[in-house]
Design a protein that fits this description.
282 residues, alpha+beta, 11 strands, 39% helix
């Protein structure tokens, strides 16, 4: 406000101006909130689209393999996550089994996961040995990932005709092989996490699966859940749960583990992405 006269405004003008300013402030704040809501809706819509795209990366159904029961499950902690699992048909009697966990969460982790998946499938289709596939995927990730980002994974091929699972563990949580008679074995052979150091040598190892044997693959969203007493769920507790239900179908084993993890977690625990695969020879 301005005037060419001295003392042109009085207390009445101040009251009138204050009343007008209050109404204007309310309108401006409403406009800002409306814009914020619209922006939030746009972000939510984009996240939903990203989630839908990411779901297409995961199997739509469990594969049917004679003499085997194979099932997987993924539960994201956010709308998009960094866990991955897949069943890849290679040739007759050979099925690729992959599980991976990307460092971090949310959209950045989901983008790295998409890059890992694309690299893995491309190398699998080139029909290399498992150790070669891991080495090539590692080098591709080293070229594209920023320092501090990495992927842990296990990739294996099930030969359902000869009942052999050949695998390489790339810095991932150790899959658990539980024999029919109760013996426990952890599948650790392979190499370091992917995307950290170039030109790493990986090893692969075959294991024979007998009738009744169960292999449990999982991410740290299962084993690193904290209870109310501050203790972790841990791999030993996971072994005990699977041993109790190993005679049940693969999907029932997944249900049992998921239920046990959920019950164990403290109310304050912030869940990570949770992914599991159960492979069982019938």
């Amino acid at each position: 406000l301005e005037s060419d006269k001295l003392g042109a405004f009085d207390s009445h003008d101040v009251a009138l101006l204050s009343a007008f300013a209050s109404q204007a402030a309310i309108s401006i704040e409403r406009a800002r909130l409306h814009q914020k809501i619209l922006s939030g809706q746009k972000i939510e819509e984009q996240l939903n689209i990203a989630r839908q795209i990411q779901r297409t990366f995961l199997p739509t159904a469990d594969p049917i393999i004679p003499a085997y029961d194979l099932a997987g499950r993924n539960v994201s902690s956010e709308q998009v996550g960094g866990d991955y699992y897949d069943f890849i048909r290679i040739v007759d009697h050979q099925t690729g089994i992959a599980i991976g966990d990307v460092s971090g969460k949310g959209i950045p982790a989901s983008l790295i996961m998409a890059s890992f998946r694309a690299s893995l499938i491309a190398e699998v289709r080139n029909n290399y040995a498992i150790r070669i596939i891991c080495g090539k995927v590692n080098n591709l990730l080293c070229e594209s990932l920023q320092p501090g980002n990495f992927v842990t994974a296990v990739y294996g091929v099930l030969d359902s005709k000869n009942h052999i699972l050949t695998f390489a563990n790339c810095g991932h949580d150790l899959p658990i092989l539980i024999r029919k008679r109760g013996d426990i074995e952890f599948l650790r052979e392979g190499g370091p996490a992917l995307g950290i150091t170039r030109d790493v040598t990986f090893e692969e190892r075959p294991v024979v699966l007998n009738a009744g044997d169960v292999v449990m693959f999982y991410t740290d969203g299962v084993s690193e859940v904290f209870g109310s007493d501050g203790r972790q769920f841990g791999s030993q507790r996971l072994v005990e749960i699977v041993q109790q239900v190993k005679d049940q179908p693969a999907r029932a084993i997944l249900d049992a583990v998921h239920g046990a993890v959920t019950r164990f977690a403290s109310p304050q625990h912030v869940f990570d992405d949770l992914t599991m695969i159960v492979l069982k020879r019938l």
